[in-house]
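May I ask for whichever protein you like with its backbone structure tokens?
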Amino acid sequence: MKEIISSDYEKEVLAGQNVLVDFYSTECPPCEAVAPKLETLEKLFGKEIKFVKIFRQGNRDLADQLAVKSSPTLLFYQDGEEVSARLTGGVKRSEIVRELKHVLGKDRVSEIMKTQEPTISDVDVAILGAGPGGLTAGLYLCQARINTVLVDIALPGGNVSTTHMVSNYPGFIDPQPGYMLSHNMSEQTKRCGTTYKVAVDVTHVDLLKKEIVIDSQETIRAKRIIIATGTSPNRIGIPGELEFKGQGISYCATCDAKYFVDKEVVVIGGGNSAIEEADFISKFASKITIVHQFDQLQANKIAQEKVFENPKFSFLFSHEPRAFKKAGDKMVVEVEDLKTKEMKTLISDGIFVFIGQKPNLEMFGDKLKLDQWGYIQTDEDMRTNIDGVYAVGDVGSKKYRQITTAIADGTIAAISITREIG
């Protein structure tokens, strides 16, 4: 891609016809993730769209003038005017293609996409999932000089990257911000030499053939596959939950607590994640009501002591939510008293749901042997029932799901593979 500076902007962008502009930064993992996607798309669309990039830190006045606040930020122009939504963060190839339709038109983009040539990559090990387990496996494998690729539909880090503070990770006296801990893990594995293909669409996975198709274009063929896809938040499954997700209902305190300064919120759940995240929310919100189905919290004692001592907290034990509604700019949750069956209405500015996790296994079909809770069963070397396929981290059947146990799993799987094919 051609690099330009602020003084080139009018000539190269505003005076151009069809232009895609990438504002990027250095030491920016999302920028590194989007760069190869832009390069492949430039080969497809380069005759009809000009692809340029601008170093954001070196062109701050222009970035401020255009209200570009993060890296990367992709802007799409037609005859000097922006014509589609901007893309930021962990941008996927499919998202870029979608926005190019606003520049060239849907039919023309579809026509060009049909001309792309599929590619095949051969590796020793493909890791699906870039949380602590996958990153650790990648680190050990690359140190053993085993050709490894790490694939993730999001950016590296897994759930740790959205955790406010981690206070029980060995080696750190002070609690560490989750995003920083996961960033350091990712950078260590990347510098070792593991290839990253992140913020991609995983189109198809064939565990028996050891093939992974990403972005409907590249097939990765591996000798071994490590499944490290982790978990996603459980949904309650009551009326209004899907309707108001992201519009009053959140599953991530780190992401959304900052929007509730001096406001009242309801937190659903009473386990470790619920109480630890609620404690973080209390740094912003003025009042937090905990709704929990049992008659006492299940969180660890230290977390419990913090919220019980905080005057911002109130508790509804032995209650469950039955419906979410909206009243103007307020969120309404109807809860049932499990002992008396009485219904109550709670009104707040927002709702956070923390009721556990479920394994991310949708892409794998029904070939894997699972335990009664739907997690992958493995042996002591992290092998699944499918030859050459391993599972590590929270997606596996285990008693405790912690960062440290995921790292242990990744270590074991990597060493096992190294002894087989190293």
